[in-house]
Amino acid sequence: DIQMTQSPSSLSASVGDRVTITCRTSQSISHYLHWYQQKPGKAPKLLISVVSMLESGVPSRFSGSGSGTDFTLTISSLQPEDFATYYCQQSYNSPPTFGQGTKVEVK
Amino acid sequence: EVQLVQSGAEVKKPGESLKISCEGFQSSFTNYWIGWVRQMPGKGLEWMGLIHPADSDTRYTPSFQGHVTISADTSISTAYLQWSSLEASDTAMYYCASGAAALGHPYDMWGQGTMVTVSS
Fold first, then answer.
1. Statement: residue B9 has pLDDT above 90
2. Cβ–Cβ of A96/B112 closer than 8 Å?
3. Residue B61: closest CA among chain A residues belongs to which residue?
4. Residue A24: exposed, middle, or buried by beta-carbon count in 10 A (0-12, 13-18, 19+)?
5. Minimal Cα distance from A103: which residue of B?
6. What is the pLDDT of residue B2?
């Protein structure tokens, strides 16, 4: 199995802050890395696919980067609606696996 | 684009069986992989398994293999997740997800979730 390690598990930030979340995999997964956002009581929402491709309607303050085993989700200027939990997911192997999640909380 | 609508919340006793559903409202339902994801209370997301409705190719995450069964009925564009004997530890929210035309693709369509509570 491919192990996914997200860090940090939680962070406190203020509106306007730059936020960076990292995802490390136990083996190379090429570009098969996606990011999801989940708000309380809601289903996950796909934000970014194949490392850096923003889904339609996702604000440009979100960006993704990385390759191989190390990946990053960046929110350039945190907005009130961005407080949520973020998950990375690999689809190099089947079934896919998620990272453990990063909760972005209000500072 | 596939829209997914899941069956309603369930309350069951340990040892009981259960089958929950995920209906796709689009003609190309059979062209996409459908996955099931568990979220235990206050915890993260866990993939349980996948099915491709067109040929019933099914993949399970090892930790769920043998405990659940994933199936699909293409005639009614519906995927299922079932248990033959529930345990208290099965209490969770269960999501179906679709939109992946191939195994490496992400899942851009999600059901609203089905809450399953198992308690004596």
1. yes
2. no
3. A95
4. middle
5. B44
6. 59
